[in-house]
Amino acid sequence: MARRERADRVLLQRISAIEKRMFVIKQSYEKYFAGTEPLEPIKDRESLKREMREISRISMTTTRERYKWQTLKARMSALESYWQRNLLMIERGTHPKMKFRAEARARSRGNGASSGAEERLEAQRQARARAAEEEATLRKTFNEFISARKKCGQDTGVSFRAVREVLRGQAEKIQTQYKCKEVEFSVSVEKGKAKVKAVPVR
User: Fold this and answer.
1) Residue 183: enclosing H or E segment and its boundaries?
2) Is 8 within 8 Å of 62 (Cβ atoms)?
3) Which pLDDT tens digit goes with each residue over 153-195?
4) Handedness of CA 140, 145, 146, 152 (dihedral sign)
5) 193 - beta bridge partners?
6) Which bin fits 10, alpha (ψ -120 to 50), beta or left (φ > 0)?
């Protein structure tokens, strides 16, 4: 009689251990369905099912053992049905959580594309502003240069386009030579002739 009771306790302990494993696997599946776990816990699930098949072959003589075991098997059956439904929805792309994450990724990509377009537009606006500022500076320098040439009695029939190209060439040389980003122009008169000097801005 005593040996029979020990056998019952061992069996109940195994059933309790399976119940705990079932809970852990259930949590793992929930994490998998939520996207926080990258892999389905299929190995743990198959291992649990093998253990349950082994216990099913044991003869259970008490009502307590049979009731606890039948309840556990019914719970496992319900869980497997639930898992299979979710896996099928994932396979078909209709799982609610998967759809939510896909929509979130699409919105994120859309926002990223929108942000990228805005950045490009802002860069274009800044480039146009810099070009307009450069043009205004060159135009002012040209007007000062023509005024100085007129005072010196020099020919004033010089085109703005020609002077602009010369000044840009000077600026590029100064920037390369002195490793600077900006160049300032100044008009001066030397030996009765008007000249434009490019000076690096440190």
Assistant:
1) strand 182-190
2) yes
3) 988 888 888 888 888 888 888 888 888 878 888 888 888 888 8
4) positive
5) 190
6) alpha
Q: Which amino acid is at 166?
A: V
Structural tokens at position 87 = 């896996």
**Model pTM score:** 0.47
Q: Tokens 């869980």 map to which residue?
A: 79
Q: 182: part of which helix (H) or strand (E)?
A: strand 182-190
Centroid of chain to Cα 106: 12
**Continuous segment of H or E residues that includes residue 123:** helix 96-151
- What DSSP element (H or E) covers 41? none
Give the C-alpha separation, 152 to 149, whole Å: 5
User: Is residue 191 within a helix (H) or strand (E), and if so which, with residue range?
Assistant: none
Q: CA angle 22-27-30, nearest 5°? A: 125
| Per-domain residue ranges of the chain | 2-94, 133-201
Name residues whose C-beta falls within 8 Å of residue 71's C-beta, 6 or more positions apart in sequence. none
Among 165, 163, 166, 168, residue whose Cα is nearest residue 183 = 168
Grouping H, G, I as helix, E, B as strand and the rest as coil, residue 199 is strand
| Spatial distance between the Cα atoms of 78 and 84, rounded to a whole number of angstroms | 10
Q: Stretch 25-34: mean pLDDT, rounded?
A: 90
Largest CA distance in the chain: 132
Q: Which of 137, 143, 145 is closest to 189 using CA atoms?
A: 145
Within 13 Å of residue 106, how many CA atoms lie on the same side as its CB?
A: 6
Helix (H, G, I), strand (E, B) or coil at 35: coil
